[in-house]
Structures are given as C-alpha cells and as structure tokens.
Design goal:
- With 458 residues, the protein is α/β, with parallel strands linked by helices.
- It folds into 2 domains: 2-212 and 402-457, 4-Layer Sandwich (Metallo-beta-lactamase, Chain A); 217-396, Rossmann fold (3-Layer(aba) Sandwich).
- 32% of the residues lie in helices and 22% in strands.
- The protein contains 14 helices and 22 strands.
- A 7-stranded mixed β-sheet has the order 6-5-4-3-2-1-22. A 7-stranded mixed β-sheet has the order 7-8-9-10-11-20-21, with helices on one face.
- A hairpin with a 2-residue loop joins strand 2 (16-21) and strand 3.
- Helix 4 packs antiparallel against helix 5 (123-132) and helix 4 packs antiparallel against helix 8 (275-286).
- Bound molecules: zinc ion.
- Zinc ion binds at residues 61, 63, 157, 182.
- Zinc ion is lined by residues 61, 63, 157, 182.
Amino acid sequence: MKLRFCGGAGEVTGSCHHFTVGATRFIVDCGLFQGGRGVYERNRTAWPFAVDQLQFVVLTHAHLDHSGLLPRLCREGFMGPIYTTPATRDLLAVMLRDSAHLQQAEAERNRRRGRPFAVIYDLEDVERTLERLQTVDYREEFSPAPEVRARLLDAGHILGSGIAELWLQEAERRVKVVVSGDLGQPGRPILQDPEPVQDADVLLLESTYGDRNHRSLEATLTELVGALRHALLEKHGNVIIPAFAVGRTQELLYCLNDLVASGTLPPLQVFLDSPMAQEVTRITARHFELFDSAAQAAVQHKPPPARRLHVTFTETVQESMALNRISAGAVIIAASGMCDGGRIRHHLRQHLPNPRATVLITGFQAAGTLGRQLVDGAPEVRLFGEVVPVRAEILTLGGFSAHADQTALLAWVAGFTTPPGQVYLVHGEPRGSEALALALQQRGLAVTVAQEQDEVML
Ligand SMILES: [Zn+2]
C-alpha cells in the first residue's frame, strides 16, 4: 500500500493525495494551485499518476484548493465516481462554474493583449464533473472498491466539509487512514464543531494555523459592534465589507442577525451585493440539518419586527449601482473578499474618498491584492485606471477564520481514543507545519511534515 502527496504539501493550495491499494488507485481531493510563482504551469503539468487508472475520488469539501482541478481530471478522461456530501455537491455547482467563467474572462483579457492563455477547463468539463458526483451523508459507510471502505465525518470547516476515514485492505494487511481535510474552529457560528475520530494508523492533518491561535469569537464580535456603531451612528456613513462568498458572508449575516435580535445593534440595512454569495447563502439556508443547535434555534425564533435584520439581495447591475445613492446607514457586503474583482471594486471607488465611510476587512488579504494595500494603509489606490484617494476608515477584524488554530488542532488530535500511529502534516506553510510538528512530537506522536511528491508505504 502506498500514498503519494501530489499537492497541498508544504503549502496550502493544490491538495491531492494519491493512494495505491492492491489493484485500486484513487485520490482524496484534486485541488487548484492558487497564488505564488509558476502557478499557471503547475495547474497544467501532467499528473504524477495515470488518470485512466484512477477508479474513484473522495472529495473533502468544495473550496477550490481542494476541488478546483476535478474538471481537468474529467477533461482528461476520468470516468469514475466522485464521492462527497450533498452540501458539497450543491456548492461545487456554483464554484466550479464560477472558476470556469473566471478562466474564460482571463483568457479574453490576455487575448486582447496578444498573450496566449489556455484555460485549464471550460463549462462543458464542469458539467461533466458534476455528473460524476455521488453523494454520501455524514457517517454513511461506502465501499468504492473491494479493498476500500470509507466514510465522511463533519469537519465543521465550511458547509458540507468532511473528514475522510478510509479502511484499506491489501491481502492480510489492514490500515486505517484518516484525512482531516480542512478542520473548522470549534464554537464558530452556524456549523457543528469538527467531529472526533476514534483512531487511525495514519493521519493526514491540516496545519494552516499550526503556529498560531485566533482571537476569540466573543472579542471579535465586540469589535464588530463597536466598529458598526461608530461608523453608522456617530459618523453617519456607510460600511463596506469585502466578503468571501462561501462561509464568511453567511457567518457575518448570522452574527449581524443575532446582534440585532438581541438589541445589541439597531435594525441594520444590509445589502448583499454578490450573486455568488447570494446563491451560497440560499444553499446554506437549504441545509438547515447541518446547523449546530444554536443556529437551528436562531432560525426557528423570529424576533419582533423592530429587532429584525433587513437584508436586501441586489440581483441586477442596475440595483447594485443604485446603492451609490445611499449616503448613510447602509452595510454593503460584496465580493471579492480580497477586492481583486467583483462588485466590491465599484463600491470602493465610490466610498474610499469619503472620510465618513468605513471599510471593514474580515478575512485574510494575500500579498499583491487591493485588500492588502488597504490593510497596509495605502494613501491612494488604483481602481478602473484612476487614482482613488483613501480617506475612508479602514478597519481589520482578525477573529473570523474557517480553520482550526493550534490549540484546536491539538485538542482534536487529543480527542482520538487511540492516538494515531503516524501523523503526516499537510496543508500548511513550512512555519505552521513545523510548529505543529514540534507540539505533536512533545505529546509523544510520530510526526512527519509531508513534502510534495513524497511517496510513503502504508
Ligand atoms: Zn477549505
């Protein structure tokens, strides 16, 4: 039995783990490489395995860095089933189509500049991929090959996210492998906490925040309330929130709803100005069964009208532009989260020159993005070919994260009834993985930081 790390090792994108068990070959996740040098080539180079020998795929969750190369796999002839949860299937339809659209748009832009740009896949490949999806509920056991039994547990990271438990058998040898996928931070709004696992001979553990702890949700909400009161009631301006369409937007809406229902905030006027975020919010609402008990109670409890959050979904471009006429008292949530595309750029052009406006940053901003420039305090930025002065207040809220921090990762591993025999750390920058490796070794575990293309015997 063999395992090869084909991506998401030594870095946080491109997750892909290839297993060989007797005659069976399969992968867990098939992620897109995002950001960094050489990413164009990396998403297009040949796989380190034969696509036509792959029998099936297990997909942990819908984020593109885990799912974004599935359409390429299907384009290259993969015909087997892709096992995942129903909620992940629903999200994938939105996210993979969006990914194909973005590539097409980028190809257009490059063509106009006379530069060649090959899309990795198109909408047809995405539709072909969606047809391959086979859904399994959490804790429902399935046997995709005679040598493999598997099931998914709730990872609490985004809607539908799973931890993969794999029971592998080759002749007399049995090995249980657990792939953590991305794990959520316990106590976050809406979703359940990551499910505990009994045991594993081999554990593949994510390590995104292996060296850090997050601020508590409570402290973050106090900051959010302070920022909104100051911006709306004292400065009488608008609040612009660049938001990630999947997860963060729904968390924000949920928290705002809660704060208004409890009377902590006055009834706010919120505009959700992102078609993709609206679609994902609708999908989230449809999966009520996945909510934690607090979120289920909140949905069932209708506060009196004076304590209700007013959320408007702006559908058309005209409706989006009409928001420009509101000069005070509005909270506008728009994508993209790092301000490098989408409707948020129009709102920033309108609001950045205005000292009464506030821009609230709620997520990680990668180097080189417009969001990062704002966080770094740029006095002016370029938008639509114009220089726009930054006079609006820029505030960063650090406590929202979809990933477990170091304390939560250690606690989850400590929750195993029998400690895992061997741990491979994946999905982390070297700093995060090495710090977590040290902490786990101090607890007596055998730990290796996985490297891309490493092959290990199971
Ligand atoms: Zn993820």
